[in-house]
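Milestone M4 deliverable, item 7.
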Amino acid sequence: MVSVVRYHEISESSHLIMNPLSLEKLLLVGDICHVGQGTRLLDLACGKGEMLCRFASDLGASGVGIDNHAPFLADARARAAELGAESAVTFIEGDAGAPPDLGGRFGAVSCIGATWIGGGLLGTLELMGRWVEPGGWLLVGEVYWSEPPPPQIEQKYGAGEFADLAGTLDRFDAAGMDLVEIILASSDDWDRYAASQWLNVSDWLVANPDDADAAEVRQLRDTSRRDYLAHERRCLGWGVFVLRARV
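Output delivered:
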């Protein structure tokens, strides 16, 4: 079977940001959190590291990214070199759910679209809280339901795994976190993220027609495309939620 990670390697091969988030909105996150010279960030499950690289090159920050997938980290290091930020960022291959000693706490800790690292949102928030400085920022990228999903779509993502925006707020409250800002993906953000994956898969299939995984990759693309157009485009929301520990 084609692994989820392999499919993402193919379908997101052209992506710098591996979520439905525009560059403009990514930089807005940095503005909201006053990221600048002297800001130290930790990005858990950092993927290709675009946020850290951009915050370092454009805003003067520094930081550490952790991910368990070596090819994504190779892309992250290449991107840091391309942007002249290689001295400001470090990328570590390992389990983002169990970081090694990182030399103290950070002004901002992020987990953008990968709350599975802590077994879900609440566990990931607890993990992030161990690494953030008092008064620092927690940045969580998370799915929410913009309208109730049909049963088959909820089951696809895990029954009860996500909530609507008010229910997501309840989960933040339960974790002792104050929600202070949100940056939500628009329909166009979602379209650009989803549709570009269809093109990436098509390009890969043209270049690799005899690959042993070709038929399954095509089927995964076809299924995800139909789910998106039939249901997810109207009911699946996503955003970056900016939090601080409640005082």
